[in-house]
Amino acid sequence: MSALGGFPVRPSAWAVERFGQQAGALAAAVPVQLANAHGKAHAAHLAAGLKKRSPYGLTLAGVVRENLAETARQLGEAVRDVRGYEYAVINDYALFPFRYADRPRPLDRVRLPANASPTRHRLFRAHWPQPPEGLFDVDEGLATEEYLGLHEAFEDLGASTRLVCVFFTADVENGIHAIHWGDAHLEPDRTFTWPYRERWPWLTEFWAVPGPSEARQR
Prior knowledge:
By secondary structure, the chain is of the alpha+beta class. The chain is 34% helix and 26% strand. It has helices at residues 13-19, 23-48, 56-74, 118-127, 145-150, 212-217; strands spanning 2-4, 7-9, 78-82, 85-90, 93-101, 162-171, 175-186, 192-199. Helix 1 packs across helix 2 and helix 2 (23-48) runs antiparallel to helix 3.
């Protein structure tokens, strides 16, 4: 069992299988790092003073990646750069954070945005935990150059590195609502299937920085 900030964390068997001896420390760190990222993104939103086109979402995405990379460094694990973005890699598993909604929403309804980059598509398709052999095989005659390109692993990340998805919801007013992590498979219609997933059981709002309306009430 590991603890961070006084909160005991007992990692699941799945987390231990993925992250080994770092599982407890990582399970404790992820919600704290997301809440810290919300704090910085919330500050950027206030500094911008914009009602529309707030920098909150873009700032949050960048700081979450940076915070998770810093956690990997603190644990003595790897940080790898893919197309200018750093990813935390622990025990050959890369953490892929993704805010899938700005309000509480079931994980089963997540869809990758239509304008998602080719890099993101390739990460999901080339580095997701492998299905049973032959389950999604495509006949060589049907495999297009585009298909093969999307399934080619990023050498910078490591050909054997697999993704662990960290999906969460958050908004500028209320902070982090929910956090899930697990093995996600991107389907052709941009939805996800989850061979395995977990939700952090703690009230992550405890770590959230209050938004403007909440701050006025205090």
